[in-house]
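Sat 14:20. Reprocessing the chain from the morning session after the first attempt stalled halfway. Input below, unchanged.
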Amino acid sequence: MYAGPTVVELLSQLGVSHLVWIPDSTLGTWESALAQATVPRLIRAAREGEALAIAAGLYLGGARPLVAMQCTGLFEAGDALRNFLYDLGLPLHLLVGIRSWHAVRAGRSSDNCPRFTEPILTAWQIPYTLVDPTVQPLADFAAALRALLASGRAGAVLLAE
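Finished this time. Tokens:
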């Protein structure tokens, strides 16, 4: 996984103003670096639907937020996501950790989170890019985030965990 200080620097360079998140699994390892940063500003939410609501408010106020959550949180936030993306048309940007991605592929886990993440995003017509930090350099992660933030539309970068 990419190191917290490196991720903070990348998000700052890309113009992310706020990182709204639920620090699950691997993404949680970035918390110390994020908590010390002034940009992006770290905002912790209690639930994923709440994280989307906070990001929506920030976006409407002129900020450039990114929402970070785990795949199960994406499932939980479905109704909020539907409302903000399709009813309000907000181009919210997501960073989603796919828990157990590697363990499932190696036959060490029966976790169904990896099985459902991509089909759910496809069903919701939310474009995404999958990045595997174990084999892809930081430059690939940066390119995926850059493309997402420049797209002008809602989308996600998925991180294989």
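The first helix runs from residue 4 to 13.
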